[in-house]
Amino acid sequence: MVGLGAFVTTIAQPGVIGRLPLQLLLKNELHFNAQTLAAFMVITTFAWNVKPLAGILSDAFPLFGTRRRHYMLLGAGMAAVCWFLMGVVPRANVPLLLTAFGANAFMVIASTVMGGLMVEAGRKYGISGRVTSIRQALQSAVSLGNGLLGGYLAATAFGWTVGVATALLLVLAVATFFVLTERPAATRDRDVLANARRELSTLISSRTLWASGAFLALVYISPGFTTPLLFMQTDTLHFSTPYIGLMESIEGAAGLAGSLVYGVVCRRFNLRQLLTTAITVNVLSTFLYLRYGHDTAPFIHAMVGFAVICSELALMDLAVRSTPPGCESLGFSLMMSARNFALGGSDVIGSWLIDSRHWAFHELVWLNAATTALVLVFIPFLPRAVMSRRDGEAAPGVAGGAPPSEPAPARAV
Question: What does the pLDDT look like over 261-292, one tens digit per residue?
């Protein structure tokens, strides 16, 4: 169930398997510009920014007497309905917006339940390492294969994308009905709400968390060019949709290599060194987009994929180390929610500069690189207790090592 849930709630997102097909439908049939398209994606994926609320809901308020089974049935089943409706509603802004938003919102519920199942299975059977590795392996497989699959589906009728996503979610719902047999005995747990209030109070008073959170915001809010790049690929360079998908898969493969490299070097260098180096390499790789073309695209995406995942992992490492003890799940999920929202806002800002201020693409590349490089100035001001340790070294006053960093997700998590 954990493996199936992780796979389906990752690949069936409108922003994953549906990203290229949906974006090209909006661009080519509804004539969205880059700014409108970026805003559409931010709105439809907003539910992933409030995922901690779904966790509190599932833990504190059982649905028909269960905390997992019926929430998973609700999430997977209604997400399938929303995906189906996305294929039959009129091809207009509001109907597509509402159905895509609904698919994401219900998928957040299913994804949250999957996370709860992972924790419960790990504790009950002593297999936390195995269920975690299953989850990450499947998410890595999605990041590698989705580019090719999304590129192929974008070249066909949108109904094929709708059919594949709906079928995957129905499989998850049916598997839940027959496999996830949870007895309806759970009752409302007031302790969950009380613990959530205590954790929020601790998080608000944590200076380390605020300092690290502000730094993460500065990094991710740099004006991005994900959507403007799609417009350049299709309108200026005339890339085919399968070729665009191939670039995503190359980037995913390079990112996987970067995560393996980071797993080795994080034990040899402290976080300050890792963060400084990773962001610097990220800035340098951004300049490669100044030479972006049909022949150079595979190399550029490979280099960028490697650099981005290394800086992403260093930032996730910072988030993990900065979360106060006793608030691990809520604190980290709040920082990831802020990350997801900032990434969407970054793309909206970049698209606005292209459409409304008439910036050229190369100007946006320079701005992104410059604003990213600017955050290097703030690294010396981050808490020394967090930044001076290598992975595996004990934190001051802690007997064991620091918690391991979580590999960066390919999409919303």
Answer: 888 888 899 999 999 999 999 999 999 999 99
Question: What angle, 0 to 180 degrees and rounded to 10, lies between the N-to-C axes of helices 93-125 and 69-88?
Answer: 160
CA distance 216 to 372: 11
> CA 114 from chain center: how many Å?
16
362 to 228, 288, 298: CA distances (angstroms) = 11, 10, 18
The CB density around residue 197, as the number of other CB atoms within 10 Å, is 10
270 bridge partner residues: 390
Q: What is the DSSP-derived secondary structure letter of residue 63?
A: B
* Ordered structural domains, the chain, with CATH: 1-188 (1.20.1250.20), 189-413 (1.20.1250.20)
234: left (phi over 0), alpha (psi -120 to 50) or beta: alpha
CB 149 within 8 A of CB 249: no
Which pairs from 129-138 meet CB under 8 Å and 24+ separation? 131/2, 134/2, 134/3, 134/6, 135/2, 135/3, 135/6, 136/407, 138/3, 138/6, 138/7, 138/10
DSSP state of 59: H
Q: Is 270 helix (H, G, I), strand (E, B) or coil?
A: strand
Query: pTM of the prediction?
Result: 0.86
Instruction: Report yes or no: 311 and 279 within 8 Å, Cβ to Cβ.
Output: yes
Distance from C-alpha of 249 to C-alpha of 257, rounded to nearest angstrom: 13
Question: Using an 8 Å Cβ cutoff, are 163 and 28 in contact?
Answer: no
Confidence grade of residue 128 (pLDDT, cut at 50, 70, 90): low
Task: Among 33-47, 152-166, 320-334, 349-363, name the one with the lowest average pLDDT.
Answer: 320-334
